[in-house]
Known about the structure:
The protein is mainly alpha-helical.
Amino acid sequence: TKLLATQSGAKGASGESDDLQALRAWLVQYSANPSTLACHRREAERLLFWALLDRQKPISSLTAEDMAAYPSFLANPMPCTLWVTERGRRVARDSQGWRPFAGPLSPNSVQQSLAVVNRLFAWLSDTGYLSRNPMRDPAEAAGSPSVLAVELMREDFLRIIKVVTRAHPAATDRERERIERSRWLFSLMHYGGLRIPEIARHTMGGFRVRPLGDSGEWWMVLD
C-alpha cells in the first residue's frame, strides 16, 4: 500500500525512507480488508506527517514525550490550513487541496486513533525496527493520561479476561464451551488487532496464517 509523499519542506528528513518502508510493511497485513486498510493507512499518514512537519523528525525518532503531545494535536490539529480539508469540499487524495483531517477528532475518535498508533508502534518494536514503543514508557509519558490509558489496557488485557471468564458458571459442558469461546475471541482481538465487525463477518475457515519469508514472522490473513 502506497503512502502519500510528504508535504513540501519535509523531504530529506533523516530516516524518512526507512520509515515509509516500515509503514508499508505494517499495512500489508490489513490489505485483505479495504475498510480496515483505509483506517490504518489514515492513522499512519497522520502520524507520519505530524512527525515530519510538527516534530521535525521521522517516526523512528519519536519519543514518549512527543507522543504525550499527540492526543492534543488529534483533538485540535492546527494550523487548519495545513491539516484540515476545507469544510464542505470533497477532495481527492492526490489533489493539492487534500488534508489528513476533516476537522478536530472527538474524544472517542482520539482514543481509536491512539489505539491504532499504539498497535503500529508495538509492531515496529516487536519486529525490531524500533528499540522500544514510545507509547509504552510510563516514566516519560506520565503527562498523557490518554496514552497511558491505552497502554494499561494492553498490559492488563489478558489478565482481566482471565478474571472475568473464571467468574462465569462452568458447571456444564455448554458453560465451559462458552468460556473457552469468549477467551478465544478476546485473545484473537488482542493478538490479531482485529475489530469486532471483522471477526463477525468471518468464519473460522476465513482465517489463514501466512509466513513472512524466512524471518520467522507471520501475518494473519482474512479471506
